Amino acid sequence: MTVHTNNTMQAAVLERFGAPLALADVEIPALRPGQALVRIAASGVNPLDTKIQAGNAAHAQARLPAILGIDLAGTVEAVAPGETRFQPGDEVYGMTGGVGGVQGSLAQFAAVDADLLAIKPRGLDMRQAAALPLIFITAWEGLVDRARVHAGQKVLVHGGAGGVGHIAIQIARAFGAEVYATGSAGQKGIIESLGAVAIDYRSESVDDYVARHTGGEGFDIVYDTVGGATLDASFAAARRYHGHVVSCLGWGAHKLAPLSFRAATYSGVFTLLPLLSGRERAHHGQIMQEATRLADAGALRVLMDERRFALHQANEAQAIVAAGQARGKLVVDVAG
């Protein structure tokens, strides 16, 4: 795909909620101080992107017309004057836009706050790198920033074969924790391949697996990536006195009594906050540096849906993710 000579680029644009994305020529964004212009190679597709498109994600504060796409990987084309962290030719990735009026990654270029970027891992291709940012940041914020995971702990991840869940397993193991993860019987192989003990949530009650794996004491950290009734189950699985429950989908109304009776604690994760508020953005770039470090050390892999979609097929990719039919993380190839 080539860039047009009149300073325009191709982008998939959402004109109204509930409508398909439409391919259009738009202006290549001008750089502001502290930004890098990234030639986008790949755009990760997240369930949140599909909810924004459908008009079901008011918390993302999308402003129409919008270019969606929260995650990107690509090559730095230019940097703003005075920006020294990156230079043209650097291969980078990050969670950089698609919410709050910030241009997303379903376009050939994006002017990105350099605070949000990190150098791409050497061992990951652009597609794999574009699949990582949102899920890695969400997992890291919960386990490391909120729960302070460390060696010797027992960690339970709900939804261990999902996007955030399979990354959370790997982060917890990298910190030396003993990891357990819930999933369906069909996901047992995936969960075990990541180094966690698989728990079939359909065939075993919370009380049963807490008794079996912790002697009834509960888990030091429980990371809920599912929400709803699974968060309620998390409260009942936390260790007495020292247990900590984290959720990235704790948006409903929940009874805290089971957590309180165990004298345990709770934290919520809202990964979009730096993009929406402008605060703490540099921390997201730092978290992505940690992702690069883990990936380069061979301690991180991302489960990928290998189906290929070009920019003009973005609607097809979105539809698969919206229907819950992706087999791993799905990515749109923007370059090529």
Write a brief structural summary:
The chain is α/β, with parallel strands linked by helices. The chain has 11 helices and 16 strands.
Describe the structure.
The chain has 336 residues and is α/β, with parallel strands linked by helices. Helices cover 29% and strands 24% of the residues. The protein is built from eleven helices and 16 strands. It has helices at residues 47-54, 126-131, 133-146, 163-174, 188-193, 206-214, 229-237, 257-261, 273-277, 281-296, 314-322, and strands at residues 8-14, 22-27, 35-45, 66-67, 71-79, 91-95, 109-113, 117-119, 154-158, 178-183, 197-200, 221-224, 244-247, 265-268, 309-310, 330-333. The strands form three sheets. Strands 3, 5, 6, 7, 8, 15 and 16 form a seven-stranded mixed beta sheet that branches. It has a six-stranded parallel beta sheet with strand order 11-10-9-12-13-14, with helices on both faces. α1 (47-54) packs across α11, α3 (133-146) packs across α4 (163-174) and α3 crosses α10.
Proportion of residues in β-strands: 15-25%
User: Roughly what is the average pLDDT, rounded to an integer?
Assistant: 94
Oligomeric grouping of the chains:
single chain
Number of strands: 16
SSE pattern, N- to C-terminal: EEEHEEEEEHHEHEHEHEHEHEHHEHE
* Protein structure class: alpha/beta
Annotation field: number of helices: 11
Biggest sheet, open or closed, and with what strands and sense?
A: 7 strands, mixed
Q: Helix share of residues?
A: 25-40%
Intertermini distance:
5 Å
Unreliable stretches covering 5 or more consecutive residues: none
